[in-house]
Design a protein that fits this description.
It is a single chain. The protein is mainly alpha-helical. The chain is 56% helix and 0% strand. The chain is built from 2 helices and no strands. The chain has helices spanning 22-47, 55-77. It is flat, with a radius of gyration of 22 Å.
Length: 87
């Protein structure tokens, strides 16, 4: 019986102790308001999964959607770091 061996190198990184760079952490920090708004929207939607949505639930989801859109707008209108802002 012949043994089967992998002929390719591993695809994963050599070390699993890789930490995010400062630029990646800055990008996460810039996107954090959007991330929080999306989590709030998800929470509001999860609350309405197992029961019919009443008026309060509908308002909660609508407000959460507006927060997500506002956070996306703010993030899109913000100049990327390292480039000059256009006034």
């Amino acid at each position: 019986m012949k043994t089967i061996a992998a002929l390719q190198n591993l695809v994963t990184a050599a070390s699993l102790d890789i930490e995010p760079t400062a630029a990646e952490l800055d990008a996460i920090e810039r996107e954090m308001p959007l991330i929080r708004a999306e989590v709030e929207l998800l929470d509001a939607q999860i609350m309405t999964i197992d029961r019919p949505a009443n008026e309060l639930d509908t308002r909660r989801v609508r407000r959460a959607r507006r927060r997500v859109l506002a956070a996306r707008r703010t993030l899109a209108n913000r100049a990327p770091s390292g480039s000059p802002e256009v006034a």
